[in-house]
């Protein structure tokens, strides 16, 4: 037990190494650009002011989005998807597997669950003891189920999912902008140092290295950002791109694709003025997503409130989302 705790503690410590690497590179780039280039190399005052002003705007937005990507907690399923104490007791006391599955089926009838496991069974996490909402997956690193999980990113030491996917996309975009601005403004001085038009000073090393690092990061970020733009346009997560979500009628990679405009609004919200600001504007609560070519959902608001699947006071079930539930499906235990 003590050894296991020690290993988990070491794992948590080492998981911050990629973040420290990125932070160190960014802090060095700040020093190299602001001091070695702008203050010690540039002679034109207007050029200094413009470079420093734009650079700090890019730096602040990059830092803000990176911070939000790292420290925004991954969203987990709400209590409605967890087994209640009585259901858990009833489930554990039941020895017959078929009866256990039926208990979980009864619980699932009250929830807006449309995706299935590969076998066609309702997805259930035996570690978290929750029925998984659509697009939810268990992260073995975070040791929890994450709503609309995209992937676990070591560079932010966090799961990228419903709660911070917008921040992650903005982090990629502002990282690219940061690298492009540095490369564009450093290029002429890079050439001057390279051909010897400027004297050999400590700034030479910083300027040359700034150019190489900015271009290297820009190229890698460009491919990653382009890939995620394609995912957003198709309304897929990274996990869904590799393994298509399974519905009652079988796998469908475009099951959540409701058109580019609505796909963008699901991630960034309807107010375009807030699209490029790292504040949470994603639609819904991460437990339910509209499906393509499903007429029964056209009558429900986009990513409706949790209360739509609660039982009303008179015992009737609210919302038509649960009407499509197949009562004959079984439950598959999966992590």
Would you give an account of this structure?
The chain has 335 residues and is mainly α. Among the domains are: 5-73 and 154-223, no CATH class; 79-132, no CATH class. It has helices at residues 2-14, 17-39, 45-71, 85-93, 97-108, 165-195, 202-234, 238-242, 260-268, and strands at 122-125, 130-131, 137-139, 144-146, 151-153, 158-160, 246-247, 250-251, 331-334. A 3-stranded mixed sheet has the order 2-1-9. It has a two-stranded antiparallel sheet with strand order 3-4. A hairpin with a 4-residue loop joins strand 1 (122-125) and strand 2. Mean pLDDT is 85; it is low at 295-335. It is a multi-pass membrane protein. The chain crosses the membrane at residues 12-33, 49-67, 167-191, 203-227. Its main location: membrane. One of its GO terms (cellular component) is Golgi membrane. Residues 122-242 form the Palmitoyltransferase DHHC domain.
Name the descriptors.
single chain, 335 residues, mainly alpha, 3-stranded mixed beta sheet, two-stranded antiparallel ribbon, 48% helix, elongated, Palmitoyltrfase_DHHC, transferase, acyltransferase, Palmitoyltransferase, transmembrane
Number of helices: 9
Strand content: 5-15%
Class based on secondary structure composition and strand pairing = mainly alpha
Helix content: 40-55%
> How do the strands of the widest beta sheet line up side by side?
2-1-9
* Outline: elongated
Mean pLDDT: 85
Find the count of extended strands (DSSP E, 2+ residues): 9
Main beta sheet: 3 strands, mixed
Oligomer: single chain
- CA radius of gyration is 25 Å
Poorly predicted runs are: 295-335
> Gap between N and C termini, in Å?
22 Å
């Amino acid at each position: 037990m003590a050894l296991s705790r020690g290993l988990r503690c070491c794992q948590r410590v080492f998981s911050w190494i990629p973040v420290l690497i990125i932070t160190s590179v960014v802090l060095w780039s700040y020093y190299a650009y602001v001091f070695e280039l702008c203050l010690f190399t540039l002679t034109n005052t207007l050029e200094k002011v413009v470079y420093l002003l734009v650079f700090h705007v890019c730096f602040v937005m990059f830092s803000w989005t990176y911070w939000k990507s790292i420290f925004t907690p991954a969203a987990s399923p709400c209590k409605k998807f967890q087994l209640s104490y009585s259901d858990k007791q009833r489930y554990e006391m039941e020895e017959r597997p078929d009866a256990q599955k039926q208990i979980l089926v009864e619980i699932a009838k009250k929830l807006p669950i449309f995706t299935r496991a590969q076998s066609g069974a309702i997805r259930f996490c035996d570690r978290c003891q929750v029925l998984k909402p659509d697009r939810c997956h268990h992260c073995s690193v975070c040791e929890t189920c994450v709503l609309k999980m995209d992937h676990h990113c070591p560079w932010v030491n966090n799961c990228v999912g419903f709660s911070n996917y917008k921040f992650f996309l903005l982090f990629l975009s502002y990282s690219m902008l940061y690298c492009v601005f540095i490369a564009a403004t450093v290029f002429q001085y890079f050439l001057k140092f390279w051909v010897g038009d400027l004297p050999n000073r400590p700034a030479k090393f910083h300027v040359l290295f700034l150019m190489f690092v900015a271009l290297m990061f820009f190229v890698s970020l460009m491919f990653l950002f382009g890939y995620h733009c394609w995912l957003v346009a198709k309304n897929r997560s990274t996990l869904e791109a590799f393994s298509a979500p399974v519905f009652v009628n079988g796998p469908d990679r475009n099951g959540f694709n409701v058109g580019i405009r609505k796909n963008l609004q699901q991630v960034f919200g309807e107010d375009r003025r807030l699209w490029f600001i790292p504040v949470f504007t994603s639609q819904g609560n991460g437990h339910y997503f509209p499906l393509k070519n499903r007429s029964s959902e056209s009558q429900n608001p986009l990513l409706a409130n949790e209360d739509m699947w609660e039982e009303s006071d008179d015992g009737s079930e609210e919302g038509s989302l649960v009407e499509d539930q197949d009562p004959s499906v079984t439950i598959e235990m999966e992590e």
